[in-house]
Design brief:
The protein has 175 residues and is of the alpha+beta class. The protein is built from 5 helices and 7 strands; from the N terminus they run βββααααββββα. The protein has 2 domains: 75 residues, no CATH class; 66 residues. Helices cover 40% and strands 16% of the residues. The strands form 3 sheets. A 3-stranded mixed β-sheet has the order 1-7-6. A two-stranded antiparallel sheet has the order 2-3. Strands 4-5 form a two-stranded antiparallel ribbon. Helix 1 packs antiparallel against helix 3.
Amino acid sequence: MREGEPSDRIYVVVDSSMISRCEWCGVMESESRRFCSTECAFAAGAPGMIPILMVGAVLSSLLILNVGQPTYMSTPGYLKLLSLVLPIPLLIMAIQGIEHRKSVPRNSRRNDAPLDTALLRTVSTSVACPRCDANMDVRGIGKDGVYVCGYCGATGTVAVIDKSEQRRSGSGGSI
């Protein structure tokens, strides 16, 4: 950008009250999802899977050993095999959840990005350049909100306006 040339400014209006955070790591996400990834869902559900695994182990051992059944009755082989195989996916999910808990602690990503940048990334994956209408990837916008168009070379800033803060402060102007 040359001296004296006005910078282009892109305004994006966001309602932060509609955006929720991942229940495990705290990163901002859209309103339609509780978790940002399946790993975070496994990490949040890992403690609840342990009792289910214990009950599954007890029931499968009872079926295999024929405990509590009269001697003339026996459990069919396919039920024994099924009781051994069913807990395996739960065990895998529990192990993945426990590993993710170790690598990404609860609410560890809550303050990774500035609020404006985080809000912008939850709303859209790209913004349009005001000069050439080319889509610019939101991940390429710096923490200070400065963008550079890869097609025409235009530079400027992205201003994120929080609609819910406007309502709270009482300024009802629209853009």
